[in-house]
Amino acid sequence: MAQFEEVSQKSELHPKPEGLMLQYGTAGFRTHAKHLDHIMFRMGLLATLRSKKTKSTIGVMVTASHNPEEDNGVKLIDPMGEMVTAVWEGYATQLANAEQDSLLKELKDIIEKEDIDMSQPASIYVGKDTRPSSASLSQAVLDGVSSLGGKTHDYGLVTTPQLHYMVCCCNTNGCYGSPTVEGYYQKLSQAFLQLTQNASNRTDDQKRLLVDGANGIGALKMREMEPFLRSELQVVLSNDGSSGKLNHMCGADYVKVQQKAPQGMNMGVGERCCSFDGDADRIVFYYTDSKGCFHLLDGDKIATLISTYLKELLTQAGLNLQIAVVQTAYANGSSTRYLEDIMKVTVCCTKTGVKHLHHAAQEYDIGVYFEANGHGTVLFSKAAQKQIQELLKDSNTNDERKRAVKLLESTINLINQTVGDAISDMLVIEAVLAIRGMSVQDWDAIYTDLPNRQLKVTVSDRRVIDTTDAERRAVTPEGLQDAIDSLVKKYKSARSFVRPSGTEDVVRVYAEADTQENADSLAHEVSLAVYRLAGGVGDEPKPLH
Ligand code: 16G
Ligand code: MG
Questions:
Q1: Interval 134-165: pLDDT, tens
Q2: Which of 110, 264, 298, 523 has its CA 20 to 30 A from that of 332?
Q3: Is the pLDDT of residue 108 over 90?
């Protein structure tokens, strides 16, 4: 067929280095940019098949998020703006690893397995982050799509969540919003302005927010959005990409992992600050107190503030909707305890990785999901949105209830329900703090984090570790979980787990306890157990102190 001839010819321009094997992991393909040209071309092919199969527009985002600037990566976006399904992740890996001469065979295999009607049209939205390699890599995606006769819309530089939003807008025929960057700014800013109208007498100081753009796409898009916010948010942007390097000593991942402020940010005492990651789908907040002590408000704190606010609104509106918070094993024990015991909110725990949290959150009327690292959003079920709309129209609703329902409606519009979105989450937090008249210190005081430590251990094959119970318990290697259990017993308020990373060739260790010293030594002891029982390589892990 002529269609495949073109694939054949064009694929020669994007050859796969022989022997190179890559896997579509938790966040798509991600590695040094120099290994990715053929992957991009092939993901263009796969997205075209996915589009034909689903008879919908599919997204392809070129980014490596918080990884160093030299890396890059690619993720596929399904019709409603969610991550591509697990079966298609498998196809992605299969196609990516096919040697040059068997590419067509693998392609045809997927077409056959999925019974794809190749006469269907295909439409692909493509976006990229600001990495130097992104331009040519996204061109390779476009080449892949066109070689299979698909149509493309190249959005150029956009944040990951913006592209998810576009895909959802397109496939809902505009019900979710208009599929343009301007449409995105308009939808979010209108909702934000409506919400902040409910917060009277905000001073300029309260409207001021220091934003670390990680020298990436988030900074660029924040600049574009600023005029839409009409000074209701006064953003002081640092690491805006004008001089620094992407994610280098800045950004959400740096701040969360290092537990310190990014470079290049001029923080006054007590000032509210936040950091985006390299593709602006994660955010963390922080401030420094008068003693110079750094306070991090991570995804757990964000989930707690948002769910508390939503629960209050539901009560005020007289709506009987079930709200749940979805976390992972990394959630600080204090946050889980606060949500369950004080807030009486359902908490559920899933495996690490956005798609797992997203799916779990879909089970509730309102599902608030956040990873501790700051990736998350809120999902409102169709039924919940319908109830809210009906109550808005009901003329018998009294003023107090009406106010609460209107706030709920604007909050829904402000949230990017397709995926975690640093810009949207930032605006939600700013609006909630404004409406409730809270400072960042009040927010921080809701509960106190248990001291914790994360370490990594290199082993010869991390797959020897198998976990269960949302990664909270190790099933293999034998004896490892027993060792962890007896170490945990030595400390107060302690908890620890280990899991193979989905993005790096290491085993991750998490520990929390009543003091930082205890969390550190528990993390170290568990690392040693992993090293000894799971085939550690290199030097034995050393104590932190
Ligand atoms: C990816 C995931 C993130 C997860 C992280 C864990 C997405 C979009 N991103 O970055 O949610 O927290 O992996 O990394 O799903 P790890 O497996 O190396 O610990
Ligand atoms: Mg990211």
A1: 999 999 999 999 999 999 999 999 999 999 99
A2: 264
A3: yes
452-534 classified as CATH 3.30.310.50: yes
Average pLDDT of the residues in 513-536: 98
- The answer on pLDDT for 1 being more than 70 is no
- Whether the CB of 253 sits within 6 Å of ligand 1: no
Question: Average pLDDT for residues 503-519, to the nearest whole number?
Answer: 95
Say whether domain 299-421 belongs to CATH 3.40.120. yes
Ligand 1 pocket, residue 377 CB under 6 Å: no
Cβ contact 81:177 at 8 Å: no
User: How confident is the model at residue 545, as a pLDDT?
Assistant: 85
503 is in an annotated binding site: yes
Three-state DSSP string of 60-100? EEECCCCCCCCEEEEEEECCCCCECCHHHHHHHHHHHHCCH
CA distance 110 to 52: 12
76 alpha carbon to ligand 2 midpoint, in Å?
14
Instruction: Find out whether the beta carbon of 282 lies less than 6 Å from any atom of ligand 1.
Output: no
Residues of the chain with CATH 3.40.120.10: 2-157
Query: 143: annotated binding-site residue?
Result: no
Backbone angles phi, psi at 320, to 5 degrees: -100, 80
For domain 2-157, the CATH class is alpha beta
| Residue 65 among known ligand-binding residues | yes
Mean pLDDT of 470-476: 98
CB-proximal residues (5 Å) to ion ligand 2: 65, 277, 279, 281
118: helix, strand or coil = coil
